[in-house]
Task: structure prediction
Amino acid sequence: MRHRALTVTHSAAPLVPNTRRMPRLTGKIAVVTGSGRGIGRAIATAFAREGATVIATGRGESCDYSADGLEYERLDVSNPDDWERVIGGVADRHGRVDVLANNAGIITYEPVQELTVEDWNQVVAVNQTGTWLGMRAVIPHMLAGGGGSIINVSSIWGTAAVAGAHAYHATKGAVRTMSKNAAITHAKDGIRVNSLHPGFIATPLTDSQDPAVNDYVVGQTPMGRPGQPEEIANGAVFLASGESTFMTGAELVIDGGYLAQ
Result:
């Protein structure tokens, strides 16, 4: 049997990337927690780069974000009064809150029988209660404003487990399911709630950990490298933007293939 040759035609001019792309978050008012460094800092600067007015928050009294064009507010995420002050102030100054990225989190690796009650309570207060308080504070303003996007940063360890780190697993699993609940509750209100699940990311936090822990997790990652904070920030921009308007109650996993195994 004879086969005809396949002829492929090419346009006369090569395709050129659109360097005039409009920023994806123009006009948005966004609050980001735990934004002093690492993933939170990357999310805050990415939001600003995409045109949002960004209120970066952290536990320090002050932080110089002027080079990145960010506002700064002190916020202890485990303190409900802090949340009411910060979100109320943002709404007063800017008229609304469009995006909340609940990123603040801490980790401890002690096994069940060795973790103190004080340390357990601290992990729960920051990772789980802090996320709940953020949603509780911002949802009334989003309802009044006709909608918004909440991005709750969970983890691959909100789905899968390793030895130790049980308090972190418990809280990040709670973030995952709280996000789904809020998404279903407010699906018809224009409020989208999604969880973001990073794998092992090279940050000051992971740099301070036992190198053996880091080597183990990277070794279990199919892509064989740590992720970068900017790679997580790209996912947060997508969830905050109009590109994800039919997405709520979902889990966006950015983990180099870890959970695919």
User: Anything to note?
Assistant: The radius of gyration is 20 Å.
